[in-house]
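The instructor's notes for this session suggest beginning with a concrete chain rather than abstract definitions. Hand out the sequence below and ask the class to guess, before any prediction is shown, which regions might be ordered.
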Amino acid sequence: MPETTREGINEKLIRFKEKLGYAAGDTASCLYYQTFAMFLMIFYTDTFGITPAAVGTMLLVTRIWDTFNDPLMGMIADRTNSRFGKFRPWLLWMAVPFAVSGILVFTTPNLSYTGKLIYAYITYSLATMVYTAVNIPYGALLGVMTPHSDERTKLSSYRFIGAYIGNLIVQGTLLHLVAFLGKGNSQRGYQLAITLYAVLAAALWIFVFSQCKERVAPLKGEQSKIRRDLADLMQNRPWLVLCLMGILSLIWISIRNASMLYYFKYYVGVEEKAAAFMVVGTVFTIVGVMTTPYITRILGGKKKSFIILNAINIVAMALFYLAGPTDIVYMYACHIVGSFIMGPIFPMIWAMYADTADYGEWRFGRRATGLVFSAATFSQKLGWTVGGSVAAFILAWFGYQANVPQTPETLQGIRMMMSLLPAALAVLVILAALLYNLDAKLQRQIEKELIERKERAAAE
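After discussion, reveal the predicted structure:
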């Protein structure tokens, strides 16, 4: 990877085409992530044919390994040196494996129950490992495309617009594709639908590789040892707090997302209504994402904005509990408010992770962007692991049985998973955010001093 030049350091604005290219990466990611988050559990219980308890155990076991695999991938990416850079080449290398692994997950083999369970463990583990190998370098790329915090916030906003476009594709088309392509056979329908997503995802990863540039390089002579990198990370307070915020956020999001199809299939009574509900929510989330730079400026920085937006979302989720099965307008009203409010939250978090990479370099004199972002993804996957498993275990606890009318106790559990439980966990997210100590003033100082250091190094 070439050393950063004075021009690269001072290049303030990233061209629109490159922002578009970076955004396409999260579209590719979310073709799988959104499918896994919202459809995988109901696919396993109602189509693939394994019990909720078995799904919960499988997700817990496989995702724990996947979670702890993230920092390893980050350290590998940090130590990658190629003519394409440290992080970009992984997008190219993993494009085809990414496509194939997703198709395998949603293929239902003609095996016994035990055989299916083993197949699910193997294919899902493979898919999550490949996802890690492409998504960790992709996330870290944000930290080296520009050294400017404000520009990263804008770039992160583009990224999440791309993510929600991927969500829209999945939410708006998957159930319809399964029905159309499967012609009554949901096993075949899921396999063919995911094949279409897989081809699109591979093409998008190649597009990201072709459009994005790495501009921020380590200083000349900087030595990077794994043990020292990990020690630095454990002393990086802003990063540690963000990890906790990410874990708690993904727990409640995973519980709510996993319950949504069950909510519409069994409480509302029409599963197909979930598609429009999810699409409308995602549209308003995209609108929210587009307001991220303005909201952070109006509300006084990322931390303060994050806390205020989460507080409003807690109210919207708690009120959702009051909806009856025919109160569709009321459901949409709560969902729209919550979705719009959630829009800016994750662009803020990922821009804050890039800021913590700067903080680590500023304080310790070494940059480990890949490790910072992989460990960030580690925290989010840990939350996803816990949340997804908890959702499955809650269904089992309340006596869920696939494809039959549910008892009042089961419906009560599903309603709580859509509202009160996520709201309670989001309160903990706010409490964690109060501990974040990297404010706008310190960030401006860090940005200025890092640029000065690299300009001096470039002049020597």
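Then share the key points. Residues 252 and 421 are 7 Å apart (CA to CA). The chain has one domain: 17-459.
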